């Protein structure tokens, strides 16, 4: 079967591999850049204004995560785009929420975001006998051609694989340290302020070796936006970490119940010092959470990979179900879809991917035991 998303392997030190990423994914990065310009403009933000907003976040990233600025600069150099463009793409969460979700007055019933449905299971909850992390990633369907499977071989940290919009630092990931990471967008009334942008936090979390390290990392950094992190490790640890904008006071780990966690796009715990905007901005989150609970978390028998894949193909409350399809009532540029489904096995360094809607796309298993050997 032909792969929908290109596999791109990069190597070398931070500067070398970042330039290589930009060069090898040049076409996809330019596609992502054009798509984000349309997405921002639909929220009333010109590209010039988007890059202006993104530059506001550069000093804190330079101070707290300087190596990621080097990565941004390398991607820009390789792709032939200005650094400001790559920076704006990686600040997309903050730009969109600054435009539409900083206050309740900025949200209307017509402002809709669809994002991700995630889960993690401890080893005794899986037929594989290992922890598993999985998710669907829902985003603008017109941006699908910009997704790549990035394989990173590096001397300065654990190797990793991430399925990501080309030009962005990282998203769903599996690492040589035995860490699997899933993510969910969250939105609160105080998002879009000062701090480290969400996608820089995702990339920083990839460097962690343990679930506890992810908690400590997130608590140690000022965060510009809310976000959720689903973590599983090769030795069986599973944890969900809800974060609001702010400091350590807004980091709220959610402990697995009966060895399972599920998450969508609303806060399971009340956000500290803010209120959840999901009922207005991501109202489909609640049905999806219920379905993930029913199909995965409530099942006490060990689950096969195929059963988890089937759960990610669920269509309750279609078209905005766990498996999201474009809503024909919306303009083409505003239609959402599940761009990939993934199940990650950190112990075996395996990645199972449906490169499109899991209900109709064949799942492919990638063995990364060589690249991701500890």
What are the main properties of this structure?
374 residues; alpha+beta; eight-stranded mixed β-sheet; 14 strands; six-stranded antiparallel β-sheet
Q: What's the short story on this structure?
A:
With 374 residues, the chain is of the alpha+beta class.
Characterize the structure shown.
With 374 residues, this protein is α+β, with helices and mostly antiparallel strands. Helices cover 32% and strands 23% of the residues. The protein is built from eleven helices and 14 strands. The chain has helices spanning 14-24, 26-42, 47-64, 66-79, 83-90, 92-100, 198-205, 211-220, 278-281, 285-297, 305-311, and strands at 6-11, 116-121, 132-140, 147-153, 160-165, 172-175, 179-185, 227-233, 238-243, 251-254, 260-263, 336-345, 350-354, 363-367. The strands form two sheets. Strands 1-4-5-6-7-8-9-10 form an eight-stranded mixed beta sheet. Strand 8 (227-233) and strand 9 form a beta hairpin. It is globular, with a radius of gyration of 19 Å. The two termini are 30 Å apart. The model is unreliable at 102-111 (pLDDT under 50).
